[in-house]
């Protein structure tokens, strides 16, 4: 963590300060900012207090906000998920960390059967203003169970929001929005780009909108739709395509559920072509929902079939082979060339 | 380091099956009004229960889990809790919920397939709705207790569960956290001997359920769940501890599920008529009634009057329930999120149009 960001986290608010930060540092900035703004925000998870989290996303928070609001929990993911539900029903805004998405499954009963349903099943008497954070996806040579992209599981659950940042600025603004949102949010952090780039982030407490795609680059010939770490390869593919004279619009979906179909359909209406890029396996992936939405809503605008560039429908390989699983720039460019040729 | 651990779990009962004191009764026995209120609540819970089962049998209510055999435990809990405490129930807690101000109409709505059953609850609006997925409510209870601890409040949580639920991680993980964080929680396990068709003996090799408390560093007590004095004393004591910052307690209240698991179950498939008959001999309502008679607080006329009063109250609630129109179908969309996401606006509109089409 760089000195200015660390200083901000340790010493708190004051005037908005510009920080050059990585994505994981932006997560930390957003947590510190909202904990300072709102006493009801608490943070819990395994190794998050004294150790500051295995990726250091929560470093400095315990020192600044105290052990009552920054809690190391016993090693039990189901308990973490359910404890957060209990806290949230009483008006706290817990931000619970799962150390890796591969370990979130033990908490699924709590997330699906309780967090996602509390408002609905009490007709608004109680609700769950909570955030479940988890580092996810591959590419860092991690052990087994540490690299999967299973965001579609949660996108399928009514009552949940699933939000995935793809840059430090969006991590900061979207996490603030997620914490302030009065309903449960699954906030998935692409750990491959936790420290890949730094960006200037204004620590001014300004949230970005949820339920909205971000158009990262405008273009006329094709719409490239992605989220998470794959945004990096998608942007690089767009650069390569520009050299070939193909103008690609790049959209970061960011909130994969509920899906901002309008932005996607408007873009496809303009370009007439779409390629969807995601790390998760293809079968039943969020790409399928995006493709179906385009087929339903923009069929007559399409000049070519919608194509997906995704992981394989396999178990995520151990890291020696993970590069062969992850969509590469070449794969995206090849898919676009195929679609443009039609 | 100790080289040997000894486990003691006490078992408490004050009345024999006939309602005669076995020992000196706890101080609360001097409060005749409290005893009479308790008895009335038990009878009301049972009257409501019989009515809901009848409604289900005639197609006017959905599948329903009977409270039969749990009325004493539920009533004792409801009486011991302060209003500002939080109750985290499962689905056989009608007796407690009546005392927590949940209207009977709401209970009827819930089992009658209407989400509004868990809405409102003005007396104790922080109480959780019934938890259907077994034992999951234990994690909510420790979360709520953590919130109280974070805010330095002198409140406590009572969570209930059945014997089967103590096999799940949710219970054990929550007991573990309650011990580690010294949380103001009371776990009341209504050990009714049966988890649908699985008997207590197959549920766990643990000699008692109360001793599972020890794994989390909590005290565990066993009480006769049909003994109003024993349950009341245990819950009162556990709540005193919780309110006083002394941590959590597990209470195993031993009773018997006198009814089927739910109206969809047929318990004659897996347990004997003899077993059921001898369980009825231990019925806690009858036991308290005998005690009240003997103590001069009760007689046949009062009983007759109470039965009529309960039937009347229940009938009135049933009438309101049956007259209540279902919610507009778009309610299924409207309560998912605080504000309707754009992605759902179209679906809401389609649903509303479809409903209109059906009506016109």
From TrEMBL, chain B:
<dbReference type="InterPro" id="IPR029061">
    <property type="entry name" value="THDP-binding"/>
</dbReference>
<protein>
    <recommendedName>
        <fullName>2-oxoisovalerate dehydrogenase subunit alpha</fullName>
        <ecNumber>1.2.4.4</ecNumber>
    </recommendedName>
</protein>
<dbReference type="InterPro" id="IPR001017">
    <property type="entry name" value="DH_E1"/>
</dbReference>
<keyword id="KW-0786">Thiamine pyrophosphate</keyword>
<keyword id="KW-0670">Pyruvate</keyword>
<feature type="domain" description="Dehydrogenase E1 component">
    <location>
        <begin position="39"/>
        <end position="319"/>
    </location>
</feature>
<keyword id="KW-0560">Oxidoreductase</keyword>
<comment type="function">
    <text>The branched-chain alpha-keto dehydrogenase complex catalyzes the overall conversion of alpha-keto acids to acyl-CoA and CO(2). It contains multiple copies of three enzymatic components: branched-chain alpha-keto acid decarboxylase (E1), lipoamide acyltransferase (E2) and lipoamide dehydrogenase (E3).</text>
</comment>
<dbReference type="Pfam" id="PF00676">
    <property type="entry name" value="E1_dh"/>
</dbReference>
<dbReference type="GO" id="GO:0003863">
    <property type="term" value="F:branched-chain 2-oxo acid dehydrogenase activity"/>
</dbReference>
<dbReference type="GO" id="GO:0009083">
    <property type="term" value="P:branched-chain amino acid catabolic process"/>
</dbReference>
<dbReference type="InterPro" id="IPR050771">
    <property type="entry name" value="Alpha-ketoacid_DH_E1_comp"/>
</dbReference>
<comment type="similarity">
    <text>Belongs to the BCKDHA family.</text>
</comment>
